[in-house]
Amino acid sequence: xxxxxxxxxxxxxxxxxxxxxxxxxxxxxxxxxxxxxxxxxxxxxxxxxxxxxxxxxxxxxxxxxxxxxxxxxxxxxxxxxxxxxxxxxxxxxxxxxxxxxxxxxxxxxxxxxxxxxxxxxxxxxxxxxxxxxxxxxxxxxxxxxxxxxxxxxxxxxxxxxxxxxxxxxxxxxxxxxxxxxxxxxxxxxxxxxxxxxxxxxxxxxxxxxxxxxxxxxxxxxxxxxxxxxxxxxxxxxxxxxx
Length: 242
Description:
Layout: H1 3-24, H2 26-37, E1 62-64, H3 79-83, E2 89-95, E3 107-115, H4 124-128, E4 134-136, E5 151-152, H5 154-157, H6 172-178, E6 187-188, E7 198-199, H7 234-237
Antiparallel strand pairs: 1-4, 2-3, 3-5, 6-7
Helix pairs in contact: 1-2
């Protein structure tokens, strides 16, 4: 056999043995990782001057949202606190009054705290929120010098008042006069670092009310159809009688 052919065959057999070692052995698979990275161009992140973008559904710092008129979305139901596996959320609810209304519901969050010493940023709290009052931003830079500074309260979490809105509290008369369908779709979609973008959803059809009536039939009326979910609806306020 010619010496040149022997040399070529030797190199081929050696390459096959090296490939089998890197592919089918535990030690070889571990060594293949640094071997692959040896021939790639290193990527240097210019942080914090140029932070890298996070994933669209990244779970970062929480925020408490508002409606477009400034009312708070949180109704103090404490479902977020019950859903938290790390027991990092504390909510103290209180009742709205005729002269001081903070949310369109019966109650609002008088005190709201999130302990970021415990929070694991799992997102179960925002899944439990029935009004989309609590969402998570892309902000992950909230370190502190002490543990006490990592306990954020309502003033730290709630977003700024939207343009055209007013800060809470409102009066009950003002809220009723607006006649807004708060639970029909004024939502923050999607949540962002700056508080989200408010969008008016399509009005809920009045026929939808027939699907939630447990028994009986809806009363018939010859008047113009109106959405019964509107706050301040005179027909609903008088028990369905004019």
